[in-house]
TrEMBL record:
It comes from Phytophthora aleatoria. This is Uncharacterized protein. It comes from the Eukaryota.
């Protein structure tokens, strides 16, 4: 597997569902890293907000639901 940033438009289109589902997560990670947090600290913050007991898929669903409400208050 190669990183999403190295996917061609055709490959990205073939995996549109997975790509768009993860895009919300990576947007939050990017926002925090640009603010000075490390990626590890940001991921820990995500788990702190959503809980370690949830699966990655459930966390991604939560991110999408939060996005429609302007994002989770602890992840802004």
């Amino acid at each position: 597997l190669k990183p999403a940033k190295e996917l061609t438009p055709v490959e990205r289109g073939a995996n549109k569902f997975a790509y768009s589902r993860r895009k919300v997560f990576w947007g939050v990670i990017t926002q925090f890293v640009r603010s000075g947090y490390t990626s590890d600290a940001t991921i820990d913050k995500v788990y702190q907000v959503h809980g370690r007991q949830l699966s990655v898929s459930s966390i991604l669903v939560s991110f999408r639901a939060d996005r429609t409400r302007g994002g989770h208050s602890n992840l802004r």
